[in-house]
Amino acid sequence: MENEILERQVLICKAFANPTRLHILDLLGKRNWSAAEIQQQLGISKANLSQHATVLRSAGIVVRRRQGNHVYFSLAMPEVKKASQLVQHVLRVQIRNGQRLI
Fold first, then answer.
1. 56: number of Cβ within 10 Å
2. For the chain, what is the mean pLDDT?
3. Does any domain span residue 101?
4. Is 65 a domain residue?
5. What is residue 102's predicted lDDT score, i.e. its pLDDT?
6. What is the 3-state secondary structure (H, E, C) of the chain?
7. Which of 21, 30, 41, 42 is deepest in the core (most CB within 10 A)?
8. What confidence score (pLDDT) does residue 101 get?
């Protein structure tokens, strides 16, 4: 079971390892968004959003629901928002303490 957890952690970390996906997660941490709204907010194409959404969905971070002709995204669980906020907190502390990335 420990190996499965580590493998899933790798998937989540890879999903977090992209600025566009982090921005999507930040948006979804506030509310559910339609695909069109996310595209407009980030200024990305439908194909680009689809690629990012696939990575996030494969990692179990985001869920998609279709309503008529519209697609909506939401966080799969509230813990995702907490995890993202924790990483941001660590980075703020590093910056405040003058730590540089190597």
1. 25
2. 93
3. no
4. yes
5. 65
6. CHHHHHHHHHHHHHHHCCHHHHHHHHHHCCCCEEHHHHHHHHCCCHHHHHHHHHHHHHCCCEEEEEECCEEEEEECCHHHHHHHHHHHHHHHHHHHCCCCCC
7. 21
8. 67
Distance between CA 11 and CA 33 in Å, rounded? 23
Summarised one tens digit per residue, pLDDT across range 49-65 is 999 999 999 999 999 99
Model pTM score? 0.86
Given the structure tokens 């813990």, which residue do they identify? 79
Which residues does 22 contact at the CB level (< 8 Å), separation at least 6?
16, 84
Structural domain of 45 = 2-96
Per-residue pLDDT reduced to its tens digit, 2-14: 899 999 889 899 9
Give the C-alpha separation, 29 to 11, whole Å: 19
Task: Tell whether 64 is covered by a domain.
Answer: yes
φ and ψ at 18, to 5 degrees? -155, 130
How many domains is the chain partitioned into structurally? 1
